[in-house]
Design brief:
277 residues; single chain; Rossmann fold; nine-stranded mixed sheet
């Protein structure tokens, strides 16, 4: 069985890299945390990995809008080989590999133009901006998976409970034409919902007021996933703020956190792909 390798980038204010690396290790993959400067300098080649990960954090202090400065650095900075990091990402995706961006990482993907990339020209089509509440939201939310989504990250999941930790998580779509295309292509793969699983735009179940109640987007291939909630923050049952009640209700409950399934899904998908080649 081929070893699945995940690269987790860090630097410039990213601060959730260790949790994301731990998620892949628990899911059975090898995870390496790499500073972006090592990629820019040519010391690390992302093509040697199977999954490219952009964790959450506060890149450049979010002073010019969440993720914008680092997105521009990744989009335009030339590497030692003469190509931009975005060129390398495009090559990575063309090879059938996968990308995950969480919170600040979702903002990078959106502002680089990799999500949703409806028109295929890698130009920014949507943005993530200040929550309707005008404050940082740090709590747990319920989410509903779009069963028609192509992304293997969410396979077999109907609803999921995860924490959000963001001040700028409100998705705004450029125009109605793009919004319709996102819905038709089922790229809006994860939506805020009530505990009963009903999609909602009402605060506080929806923490930011996103268009389409969106908590996550994919591209048309399903290979790139960006999401505001933090699956890497729910790797153990004991991360759940209500774990004692859950344990009393079902002493045999799995001690895996719900977020871990997302990482298990992609690791198993890659192993399956290699097994079919």
């Amino acid at each position: 069985m081929k070893e699945v390798k995940a690269i987790v980038v860090t630097g410039f204010g990213i601060n959730c890299e260790e949790e994301m690396a731990a998620a892949y290790k628990l899911a059975g993959a090898k995870a390496e945390v790499v500073h972006l400067n090592d990629i820019f300098a040519g010391n690390v080649n992302i093509q040697e990995y199977d999954i490219l990960n952009f964790p959450g954090g506060f890149s450049f202090g979010d002073d010019l809008g969440s993720g914008k400065v680092l997105a521009n650095k990744m989009k335009y900075r030339k590497l030692k080989n003469g190509y931009t990091f975005l060129d390398e990402i495009n090559k990575f995706v063309a090879a059938g590999k996968y990308i995950l961006g969480v919170c600040n990482g979702f903002q990078f993907l959106v502002k680089m133009g990799l999500l949703p990339n409806i028109n295929g020209n890698i130009e920014q089509e949507v943005t993530l901006t200040r929550n309707n509440s005008a404050k940082f939201e740090d709590r747990w939310v319920y989410l509903k998976v779009n069963s028609n989504s192509k992304t293997p990250f969410l396979k077999g999941i109907e609803t999921i409970f995860m924490p959000v930790r963001h001040g700028e998580g409100k998705l705004i779509v450029k125009n109605q034409e793009l919004k319709t295309a996102i819905q038709q292509e089922n790229l809006n793969c994860l939506t805020y919902c009530t505990q009963q699983g009903e999609i909602t735009s009402q605060y506080p179940a929806n923490p930011n007021g996103s268009d389409m109640d969106c908590a996550a987007l994919t591209d048309k291939t399903g290979q790139i996933l960006g999401m505001m909630p933090h699956p890497e923050a729910y790797l153990s049952l004991y991360n759940n703020p209500n774990w004692p009640a859950l344990k009393r209700k079902d002493p045999q409950i799995s001690e895996d956190g719900e977020g871990l399934q997302i990482f298990k899904n992609i690791v198993e998908k890659i192993r399956g792909n290699y097994g079919n080649n």
